[in-house]
Amino acid sequence: MRGPKESLLDILEAIAAIERFARQDKAAFERDQLLQVWFLHCLPIIGEAARALPAEVQRLAPEIDRGQDHLRA
């Protein structure tokens, strides 16, 4: 099982990948299907890695909205 450090590294790597291409304008993004797919590939990596973080790590940043309120019903 991967630990919190690996999950955090996955998040940082996915963010860095997105940022490499984020310098393009919106029109360029809308024209480039490959760029759109790449971006959509990175988002679930961030989400899955963030969800895998143990509660004690998540509590270090309580200001982050993790969108989990619907799970507490």
Tell me which oligomeric state these chains represent: single chain
Strand-pairing-aware structural class: mainly alpha
Portion in beta strands: under 5%
Secondary structure: helix percent: 55-70%
How many helices in DSSP terms?
4
Q: Alpha-carbon distance between the termini?
A: 29 Å
Shape: elongated
Provide the low-confidence segments as ranges. Answer: none
* pLDDT averaged over residues: 85
The radius of gyration over CA amounts to 15 Å
The secondary-structure element order is HHHH
Written account of the structure:
The protein has four helices and no strands. α1 runs antiparallel to α3. It has 73 residues and is an all-alpha fold. It has one domain.
Keywords:
single chain; 73 residues; mainly alpha; 4 helices; elongated
Brief rundown of the structure:
The protein is an all-alpha fold and 73 residues long. It is 66% helix and 0% strand.
Topology of helices and strands:
Elements: H1 4-21, H2 26-31, H3 33-52, H4 55-58
